[in-house]
Amino acid sequence: MDDRDAIDSIDELHRRLEPCRLCVEAGIRVESMPVFSRLHRADAILVGQAPGAREAVDLRPFTGPAGRRLRAWLEPAGLGTEEAFYGRLYIAAVAKCFPGKRPRGGDVRPSPAMVRTCRPWLLRELALIDAPVVIAVGTLALAELAPGVALEHAVGAELRIDDGRPLVSLPHPSGANPWPHLPGNAPLLRRSIDLICRRLERRPR
Ligand code: SF4
């Protein structure tokens, strides 16, 4: 039992998450403070991998080039502007602190120990934010939300997370990720965007 499992309000979660240094205490490398959404309600919960170098400075998710690419993908769903993206989506991540840069470039992928240490935060966010659809961005988020499902079987399909809510998956929007450009994958990505459009249209306003 982790004492975070008992957090019963999003305000309390944000208050306790903001100074979190659990990874540091466990000897796991992190290079920023936690980056997380401050919303109390949202049209969807978007779960990414971890903040990058830019987000580590801004302390805001998806402020770098990957965020711009993600907003371009989500434009048909009305989420292309920063106002809509940050105002309508609760943006969570598998790991909430920047894991650092690799010596030869690119960001460190959060280690299993980091993911395990951060997991109770994500589980409480999912429990406390009553959004009708969850969006996984990248393979690490997909592994957390739908373990064992390959990206090519998840993108373009609607899965379910443990509590029954629909899960729509997207590839990681990093410019270094070749997946969106591989043969046959562009239509899958378009289908995921269509699914998000339909789910958001159904949201009562
Ligand atoms: S990655 Fe998660 S668990 Fe680790 S220090 Fe940051 S917020 Fe805490």
Query: Percent helix among the residues?
Result: 25-40%
Q: Which fold name is given in CATH as the topology? A: Uracil-DNA Glycosylase, subunit E
- Helix-and-strand structural type: alpha/beta
CATH architecture descriptor text: 3-Layer(aba) Sandwich
Can you tell me the number of structural domains? 1
The CATH superfamily is identified as Uracil-DNA glycosylase-like domain
Low-confidence parts:
none
Strand content: 5-15%
Largest sheet: 5 strands, mixed
Spatial ordering of strands, largest sheet: 2-1-3-5-4
**How many H/I helical runs?**
9
The shape is globular
Give me the Rg, rounded.
Answer: 16 Å
Query: Roughly how many Å apart are the termini?
Result: 37 Å
Query: How many DSSP-defined strands?
Result: 5
CATH class identity: Alpha Beta
Overall mean pLDDT: 95
Characterize the structure shown.
The protein is globular. A hairpin with a 5-residue loop joins strand 4 (158-160) and strand 5 (166-170). It has 9 helices and 5 strands; from the N terminus they run H-H-E-H-H-H-E-H-E-H-H-E-E-H. A 5-stranded mixed beta sheet has the order 2-1-3-5-4, with helices on both faces. The mean pLDDT is 95. With 205 residues, the protein is α/β, with parallel strands linked by helices.
Briefly characterize the structure.
By secondary structure, the chain is α/β, with parallel strands linked by helices. The protein is built from 9 helices and 5 strands, in the order ααβαααβαβααββα. The protein is globular and about 45 Å long.
Sequence-ordered SSE layout with sheet pairings:
Layout lengths: L9 H8 L4 H4 L18 E5 L4 H6 L6 H9 L8 H7 E5 L18 H17 L5 E4 L1 H7 L5 H4 L3 E3 L5 E5 L14 H17 L4
Bound molecules: iron/sulfur cluster.
